[in-house]
């Protein structure tokens, strides 16, 4: 698996990121709200990412990206389907116009906030003629990394008995993660932006994967607790070689893949963050949260 650095496909990321934000904003507007914006998250599929079911005045519909066929697919409950090809040279503004028209055609018109969120530019979708790159090969390489990280995150998240999220894809900055909650609610500063204020109103530990479209510049696993301000937390060293703390714990995918057992190394990284974070936050009920599932073993699958 090739580790794709941000600089290797930045123009495509900046374009695809806006396409994905449009879809996420439709989910945000229509799906019944859940704590920590859980309802607005996207989900990994075998071929891409999807909103799952979205209610509308004319029945349910779903929006999915297929990164094998390089298509955006909108499907309604009557089986009607519209497809938008993902191809180089289509500006964000052109895509936005087509996307809204296809939604309207299916009777699912949704007015969304057209300004990018959590990105390094804020050009409104309908005015963005600058970003129009789509490198199919780069997208496929990126999604291979996403699927690899998803498998590990899902395995790590699965046995936890307390309140947790599924492994979600965050459309704001194209990262992915799962969250565990202690059960304690937090009083948040009412002056904070609404998205942040209602996204961190509970004590939590998050584990995830980021493509590196930031100062790190390459894909990495991450983990942190919230609130994350105690000084002793920032000084903790995890027993994972080459992991480090920089506002959150970081473990680069390239370093992980260089180990003898990358999956085990990533799992150990997440478990170490959980162990130190629950200690610092003083979580209760750990015995019940961590009790093994003790389910019958799954069948061994034959390899051909």
Task: Describe the overall structure.
The protein is 31% helix and 19% strand. It is an alpha+beta fold. The strands form 2 sheets. It has a 6-stranded antiparallel β-sheet with strand order 6-7-8-9-11-10. Helix 1 runs parallel beside helix 2 and helix 3 (136-157) packs across helix 7.
Feature tags:
single chain; 304 residues; alpha+beta; 6-stranded antiparallel β-sheet; 5-stranded antiparallel β-sheet; 8 helices; 11 strands; globular
Write out the strand line-up for the largest beta sheet, numbering strands in chain order: 6-7-8-9-11-10
What's the N-to-C terminus distance? 21 Å
Helix proportion range: 25-40%
Radius of gyration: 20 Å
Order of helices and strands: HEEEEEHHEEHEEHEEHHH
Structural class, from helix and strand content? alpha+beta
Q: Quick gist of this model?
A:
The chain has 304 residues and is of the alpha+beta class. 31% of the residues lie in helices and 19% in strands.
Q: What secondary-structure arrangement, pairings included, does this model have?
A:
Elements: H1 10-30, E1 43-44, E2 48-50, E3 61-66, E4 71-76, E5 81-85, H2 92-105, H3 136-157, E6 168-170, E7 175-185, H4 194-197, E8 202-210, E9 220-226, H5 231-234, E10 244-245, E11 249-252, H6 253-257, H7 262-281, H8 286-289
Helix pairs in contact: 1-2, 3-7
């Amino acid at each position: 698996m090739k580790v794709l650095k941000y600089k290797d496909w930045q123009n495509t990321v900046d374009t695809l990121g806006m396409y994905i934000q449009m879809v996420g904003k439709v989910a945000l507007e229509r799906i019944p709200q859940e704590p920590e914006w859980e309802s607005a998250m996207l989900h990994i599929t075998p071929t891409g990412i999807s909103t799952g079911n979205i209610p509308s005045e004319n029945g349910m519909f779903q929006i999915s990206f297929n990164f094998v066929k390089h298509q955006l697919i909108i499907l309604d409950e009557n089986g009607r389907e519209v497809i938008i090809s993902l191809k180089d040279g289509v500006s964000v503004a052109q895509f936005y116009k087509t996307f809204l028209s296809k939604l309207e055609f299916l009777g699912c018109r949704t007015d969304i906030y057209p300004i990018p969120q959590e990105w390094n530019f804020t050009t409104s979708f309908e005015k963005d003629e600058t970003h129009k790159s789509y490198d199919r090969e780069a997208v496929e390489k990126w999604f291979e990394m996403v699927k690899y990280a998803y498998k590990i995150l899902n395995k790590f998240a699965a046995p936890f008995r307390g309140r947790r999220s599924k492994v979600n894809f965050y459309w704001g900055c194209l990262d992915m993660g799962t969250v565990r909650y202690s059960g304690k609610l937090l009083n948040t500063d009412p002056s904070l932006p609404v998205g942040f204020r209602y996204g961190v109103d509970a004590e939590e530990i998050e584990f995830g994967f980021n493509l590196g479209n930031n100062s790190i510049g390459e894909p990495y696993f991450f983990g942190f607790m919230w609130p994350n301000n105690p000084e002793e937390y920032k000084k903790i060293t995890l027993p994972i070689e080459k992991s480090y703390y920089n506002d959150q714990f970081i473990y680069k995918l390239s370093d992980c893949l260089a180990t003898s057992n990358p999956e085990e190394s990533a799992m150990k990284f997440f478990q170490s963050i959980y162990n130190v974070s629950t200690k610092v936050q003083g979580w209760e009920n750990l015995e019940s949260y961590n009790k093994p599932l003790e389910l019958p073993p799954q069948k061994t699958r034959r390899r051909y």
